[in-house]
Amino acid sequence: MLYQDKLIEEYYTKYKIMKYLEKELDRAGLASIDIQRTPLVTRITLEVTNPARIIGRKGRLINELTDNIKKEFGIENPQISVIDVREPFLEPRMVAKRAAKYIEIGKKVRAVLHYMLREVIRAGALGAEIVAAGKIGAKGAKAKCLRVSAGYIPKAGEPVRLVRVAHLAANTKSGVIGVLVRIVPPGTVFPDRKVEAVTLPKVVEAAESVDKDARERQQVPRAPKR
């Protein structure tokens, strides 16, 4: 096998493993996956909001996951480590997933983007950009793109590698809406500039929580059936 073919196969295997883990660990609040292959082991690092759902009692679940990866993908010695995510709003995949969920249940897309951007910046991000593109609006409406951003987000050159990125899709009645999230985590140092404190636009700063209505519905008791 040529070196180029072997390299492509390795990246494709990593992609299949990542898709498998995303499906299996969705309820654990999966934030990110990092796969590093060495001559001796394949290290898989999972960042999740609920580590107990992966580890299980006495490590039973994580052992089952390791065995499945061995069998499904032919990985000889996978080693899985789990990291607890302390701040979900600094993880692009978590932000995109939450935004997609709110859009799917009928929340206004612009309100969702404003709320999510505000929470990301309040969590300490030096910059953030959230984009929603697709059939936004009533059924039959033309596709369009909504974008909100704050702080510094490099779009070209080496600094782009310092930006965390995730892209997910929201399936609505009018069609699919893609949600793209870019976040510059706190403490990031750029070689070409010093990032100033982020000032949110007034409309974003004043954004209401998009799950406010849901919380109120939970608090109001339902009338008894007659």
Summary of the model, kept short:
This protein has 226 residues and is an alpha+beta fold. The protein is built from seven helices and seven strands.
List keywords for this structure.
226 residues, alpha+beta, GMP Synthetase, Chain A, domain 3, Ribosomal protein S3 C-terminal domain, 2 domains, 4-stranded antiparallel beta sheet, 3-stranded mixed beta sheet, 7 helices, 25% strand
What does this entry look like structurally?
The chain folds into two domains: 3-84, GMP Synthetase, Chain A, domain 3; 88-209, Ribosomal protein S3, C-terminal domain (Ribosomal protein S3 C-terminal domain). A hairpin with a 2-residue loop joins strand 6 (164-172) and strand 7 (175-184). The protein is globular and about 55 Å long. By secondary structure, the protein is of the alpha+beta class. The chain has helices at 3-24, 52-55, 60-73, 92-104, 109-122, 202-205, 212-219; strands at 30-37, 42-48, 78-84, 127-134, 144-151, 164-172, 175-184. It has seven helices and seven strands. Strands 5-4-7-6 form a four-stranded antiparallel sheet, with helices on one face. It has a three-stranded mixed sheet with strand order 1-2-3. Residues 214-226 have low confidence and may be disordered.
